[in-house]
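During the second year of the project, the team shifted from modelling isolated chains to modelling whole assemblies. The rationale, set out in the original proposal, was that interfaces cannot be judged from single-chain predictions alone. As a representative example for this report, we include one of the complexes processed in the last quarter. Its constituent sequences, exactly as entered into the pipeline, are reproduced here:
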Amino acid sequence: MVESNYPVARMVVLEKRPEPMPPAAAVAAAPARAAAPAARDLRLDLFRGIALWLIFLDHIPSNIVSWVTIRNYGFSDAAEMFVFISGYTAAFVYGRAMRERGFLVAGARILKRAWQVYVAHVFLFVVYLAEIAYVSKNFESSLYAEEWNIFDFLKQPDVTLFEALVLKFKPVNMDVLPLYIVLLLGFPAALWLLLRRPALALAASGALYALARTFEWNIPAYPSGEWVFNPLAWQLLFVIGAWCGVGGAERLAGLIRSRVVAALAVAYLAFAFAIVMTWYFPRYGYLVPRWLGEIIYPIDKANLDVLRLLHFLALAVLAVRFVPPGWPALNSPLFRPAILCGQHSLEIFCLGVFLAFAGHFIRVELSGGPLIQLLISLTGIGVMIGVAWLLTWYQALEGRGPTRRTPNADLAGGDV
Amino acid sequence: MKWALLLLAALVPLSPALAQDDACETGKPLVPSEAVLPRAAAAVTQHHSLNIVVLGTGSSTLPPPAGEKAAYPARLQVALAGLLSRVAVKVMPEVKTRQTAAEMLEQALPGIAQQRPALIIWQTGTVDAIKGVDPEEFRATLDQGVEMLQADGVDVVFMNMQYSPRTDAMISIHAYAENMRWVALQHDVPLFDRFALMKHWTELGTFDLYDASKNTNTAERVHDCIGKLLAGLIAGAVKDAGTPAPETR
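Output from the structure prediction step:
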């Protein structure tokens, strides 16, 4: 089935129509223009598609296939990829809208996008509730008597549902969309500044990050605690992405090409790899000197630990270095599935969360060893690709291929 | 491409575990082998005795009919007595369900410190994660508890949460596990990573933790393995304290 997709998909991509660009937009589009005039930078779609697969694999509990995902080999994980690329594309598309049609129109579009993400989140929450209500009814275990208390919240649906609608109650693995909603709500103002004083916007974002970390600012969660992805900290990565999207990437080009930077990135990734391995093989834990441990631990995911941020940036530097903008392989059938998924990221993200629930459900019913896990993982990714292809097909039907961005700004740029 | 190779290379060390027969043995690489427990070691060399308190919550015991006898504290006593043949080993469970770390620190720890055991296994984290206690407070509690115990001449071993595949997507454990790891590192407290261990077993299919209800035996076998592996950690640490133990068995 997937095979037969390629001709259609390729046709859509080859159908690029260079659009006349006003001078201001040309500057904004500069990084991508290096690839093809006014064309979507396929690398963004590729890496976002891969991030979506990794998030799906990580969300299936006890999945042996999730050992291939990057979180097991370094500090950062697919969440960083996702937030950064989302910032990049959002700035790329809405930045253009803001230049061409003004703050009000672009801001309104961004807020409309935030609403769409909210609706998607509520939909997923309902699916989640249905699943765990089922799981909690059909299981009693002497081993997990204690863990079972987690289902207490089902006893008071009035509170639970309300807290979920105001985004305070967020089950595990359902934190990314609320983060994205908050980031989008703040994005009109951030984008306005980014277009005028990009360096100042970046500095302001960095300052907010530092303040939030120093004074432990975060949004409260229900039943207690705070948001697992602190928007006040994670906004930094989103803004860094957006900064690259409005032309910063070009300013960094010299730095990225530098051998010293590449060597530093490799060294840092190797360091992170070694540290992470001591978590899985504690018998080598003593090799980590105590002073070093005191510096690096605990690695704070909620507040986007500096170690995680650096790890992601190192990965990004190497990715940009080894995958140049005009890389011919980007148009090869090999990468087409990931790119397709990346082009419909909100839909595919939601589908991934849904499929992870479904995978969990299957494991609950069937159990099974590594083979079943592999089967669930591959089937899930296959379904994601199939649906992404279907969405592209619908777009083509309606005469708005993913490469014609102007009438399609919400879909392309607002994608998570 | 390089990444793919790197990932593959990293997966290689995991594969030998698949070949091993004994269920408990497959968990051994996940148990620290270089643990040092000087106070417990002193008790063994000087008094030929080793009194251990297990301070824990619901996951440190099993409901009837298996009950306490099949739970890991009891299994630890049996296994450790076998490993340390000339030592009088006594394991005393102090288990109370639904206790947060802070409640343990307030209610149970002072009494335990007075009993002066050589070692305390402190199992915690699950209840804090379920109740959503602030991870920073959780860390401060552990810090305080370990400092108090070590000052009283009691060694500490941390045991973290169980891996529960059915509820894994519902309890946010990461922050609590990280903080336990950190406090352990700061105070030279060995961490018995029960979470990683049980996750490993689930992934390998060693134990079917999804279906622990249908097979009542599974819970007992898991506890038996935990007891044995914990005994290996402790025996290795007290046999030759000060130098890294070559191999714990």
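Chain A has one domain: 5-413. Chain A touches chain B through 64 residues (CB under 8 Å).
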